[in-house]
Design a protein that fits this description.
OB fold (Dihydrolipoamide Acetyltransferase, E2P), Rossmann fold, Ribonucleotide Reductase Protein R1, domain 1, 6-stranded mixed beta sheet, 5-stranded antiparallel beta sheet, binds guanosine-5'-triphosphate, binds magnesium ion, binds zinc ion
Length: about 300
């Protein structure tokens, strides 16, 4: 009987039900593609995702995936597991930022224990707007970078930050056409790959969904950065955000005011004596973030009522 070998590796991409995995750097780090998934976990309706650490078996005919190791977290969009850092990429023009989009992603990050980092791209097209966006997120305690690949601006500072994240899994996400793949290419010129870069339609100011699949790239030993396909606000429908009672805790800039409102069950939407509303009117909480809170509150409130 053939000897059955077991190994552990990380999924770096999945196309049409076939997986590519990378072995740990200490074992040489080679990648193997075209693997299938078979095994009991498939009946539990868990689908292996890029970022998953998996158990492989070789029964003599080649490796296949037989199990998924415990996950730190997993996201539907972008479809990834075990993320440590999510770079939320937004361009200051072509396409213009969509209000609330980045905030929805920061909430998803907070809920899933992922550090969100804001990256504004194409800053040369509107430097003032790029500064305004980064200051909003810095005021909330987040890291935020303004970049222009066109002018080679801010790319080195971002690379330095990413270099400090050894041993992590991170991903670039955002709308199509904001320049995620362009930025990947500028950040990691020494890697033996180029991410495909597309156009932005001038007429509708929308990207052309150039990147089609999630792909994890090894940028340092056991350090992975993913380029992901662009998505839009519509793709968030049915996304399980969080309960309405949890929502205020997903905004770190609210934390110092929470639990001290006049009403113990304050929803922070319209009540008198609400410290969050007062902080917004004093300019201590950015108005755009509070607007996102109100809009997300309506979403999660309606969803739960509809589900009852
Ligand atoms: N003006 C300007 N254009 C840029 C900059 N960075 C990227 N672009 C352009 O933005 C367009 C889209 O770039 P991509 O990198 O393909 O965008 P993406 O976010 O990967 O898009 P998807 O793969 O469709 O999700 C291309 O025409 C790039 O040349 C920049 O710093 N300034
Ligand atoms: Mg792309
Ligand atoms: Zn309140």
């Amino acid at each position: 009987m053939a000897e059955i070998l077991e190994a552990r590796a990380k999924i770096i991409s999945c196309v049409g039900g076939k997986y590519t995995v990378a072995f740990p750097s200490c074992e040489g780090g080679r990648t193997v593609g075209n693997l299938a998934a078979k095994g009991a976990f498939r009946h539990e309706r868990i689908k292996p995702l890029p970022g998953d650490d998996v158990i492989l078996r070789d029964d003599g005919t080649g490796y296949f995936i037989t199990g998924i190791c415990g996950r730190k977290n997993s996201l539907i969009r972008p479809p990834l597991a075990n993320l440590d850092v999510l770079y939320i990429v937004t361009s200051c023009r072509t396409p213009a930022p969509v209000p609330g989009f980045a905030d929805k992603i920061t909430v998803i990050c907070e809920k899933n224990n992922i550090s969100p980092v804001i990256i504004v791209t194409k800053s040369e097209l509107d430097p003032d707007l790029a500064d305004r966006i980064t200051s909003v997120y810095r005021a909330c305690g987040y890291k935020a970078f303004s970049t222009s690949v066109e002018k080679s601006d801010g790319v080195d500072a971002l690379r330095e930050f990413i270099d400090g994240k050894r041993g992590t899994v991170s991903a670039f996400c955002g709308a199509s056409g904001v320049g995620k793949s362009t930025l990947m290419n500028a950040l990691f010129p020494e890697l033996p790959f180029r991410c495909e870069v597309g156009d932005v339609s001038r007429r509708i100011e929308r990207g052309k969904n150039t990147t089609r699949t999630v792909m994890l790239y090894r940028t340092a030993p056991d350090t992975y950065v993913a380029d992901t396909p662009g998505f839009s606000m519509l793709d968030f429908e049915r996304f399980d955000l969080c309960d309405k009672d949890e929502l205020p805790y997903m905004f770190p800039e609210f934390s110092r005011y929470l639990c001290r409102c006049k009403y113990t069950k304050c929803s922070h939407t319209k009540e008198d004596g609400c410290l969050i509303r007062e902080a917004v009117s004093r300019g201590e909480i950015p108005e755009s973030r509070y607007a996102s809170y109100l809009s997300l509150y309506e979403d999660v409130k309606n969803k739960k009522e509809w589900e009852k």
